[in-house]
Amino acid sequence: MNDKKLNQLFAAARREKPPTVPADFAERVQRGLGQAASSTPVVINFWDQLNRNFARYAVAAAAMIMLCAAVEISQSFSHDPSIDDDVNQICSDWMLH
Amino acid sequence: MIDLALRIAIDRTPNKKTSLVENDDAELVARVRAGSPDAYTDLVRHNQQQVFSILHRYERDIHLVEDLAQETFTKAWRALDRFDGRAPFQHWLSRIAVHVALDHVRRRKRLGGTFSLAEIGEDSVAWLRDELPPRELEGRQAREILELAMQALSPAEQVVITLMEIEGHSIKEICSLTGDSSVAVRVRAMRARSKLRKAIEKLEDSEHE
Would the pTM count as exceeding 0.80? Predict the structure, then answer.
């Protein structure tokens, strides 16, 4: 195989005419872009998500605070030793030593 | 004097046409950015033939060429914000088309779609065998033989040799289209020619057996 034959191949390939573009190609591209835009999922960042669910998070946080307060009050009435008592006991022991 | 004036007029004609097209494209890009949906359809119409001309060098199936052209225009639309207007829109679009073609060649090679000597036309085989009298090879036959031989090349080598030998681009233009350095383009072109020569010799031998 000499270069002349390879060059003949390239020259012949250069002469090949490109295909005819379909008449409605541009419209099809436009339709494809429209479909792609409508099917693209909307990306929501952390702050958007927080903003969207703020009311739910606020109610959940308030419920948690009320629950903790209720437990604390009920324990104070029952005179059971609480974690505060244990901590005070440890502190006083350590100070005496 | 008249000759000189005529020559100047002839010399200026293509430049004027090119700049008119560039101005049209620039205006259409500005309209797309301003939110006019129809402007992009006009931009596609202006440039579709050029994109098809690039892509059909890498794929013979017209339906696949259409899919690749659609992919090119979709990518261009998505990246339009990054088009800074320093180069003509046509050149920017050609770069996208070349990269779409490169991805297509890579995908085809990865999937292992092979094309054998049995699938090419008898006239192409006869040309390979040197059984035909010296005559000009038809474009379709040349494409068949080249596609068969180019299976021995890497995707990047296929793109470089196509741009250089079939599309007739200079090294500098290929660097701009592919984003490769001039050294890489020269080395790939040299390797590609050598591999093609060997692949075609192999085809000739296999046919003689």
Answer: no
